[in-house]
UniProtKB/TrEMBL annotation:
One of its GO terms (biological process) is transmembrane transport. Belongs to the binding-protein-dependent transport system permease family. Residues 74-289 form the ABC transmembrane type-1 domain. It is found in: Cell membrane. It is a multi-pass membrane protein. GO terms for cellular component: plasma membrane. PROSITE patterns: ABC_TM1 (PS50928). The chain crosses the membrane at residues 21-44, 77-99, 111-131, 160-185, 206-231, 270-290. This is Sugar ABC transporter permease. It comes from Mesorhizobium hungaricum.
Amino acid sequence: MASATKRPSRLFRNLSAKIASVPMVLTALVIFVGGTAWTVFYSFTNSKLLPRLTFVGLDQYERLWATPRWLVSIENLAIYGVLSLIFSLVIGFVLAALLDQKIRFEDTLRTIFLYPFALSFVVTGVVWQWLLNPDFGVQAVVRSLGWTSFTFDPLYNSSIVIYGVLIAALWQGTGFVMCLMLAGLRGIDEDIWKAARVDGIPAWKTYLFIVLPMMRPVLITTLVIIAAGIVKVYDLVVAQTSGGPGIASEVPAKYVYDYMFFAQNLGQGFAASTMMLLSVAIVIVPWVYLEFGRRR
């Protein structure tokens, strides 16, 4: 009887908050979950301009992985993703560690570093398209100073174009990573730093073996945010290179968009987007397990 009387009170506890969350729950179920299931379902069909129930099994996926353009986009995403993760975390943490020293004009510097994140990827792409243009960008400026043999045109070199995109992405996103890391550093107890100084532990060892393990939740969250942005990178590439030269800077998101809206091949676009969903799940599932699965 006691448990029966408690159940209604638990059910109606915070009732207003539960009612307020109903629209968001319905939106998530209908739009996100429903849209995802619809996309996966039609990836096994031969849909062209409009969806149609002509099942072809795994033909779309076989055709996808036999397309050179898709393979190039996967290779670019791997290069871009690994380097973006490494450099974003390292540069962001170093900047956060420097700002954590209570330096002068900290607020001004933090604003300057974070400002690029307020810009859209399209604006960032256009800006860096101009900066990396060999006719009036960095190369032209350096050559005007006397180094006439200097060459720096990554957006026009198919073998290194993805690194030009990476430069623009780091310029925009590193400031945000810095703020996340700075918030984590500010949460470290000051007594830990004092104890490390008393024991004579070098600063780099303190950061590496004491501070970073304590910042594990911040690091994991930052990794997930960066990884999600890497998988769906699209507008930065379109603004900078439009996938060129040729298909040298192609990425999966652009492949999906082009096949769905330009090539009018919905089945192939759905298959590619399903593979992107799978890559996101590979990132998200371990994070959920690390954050919640091992908790007692």
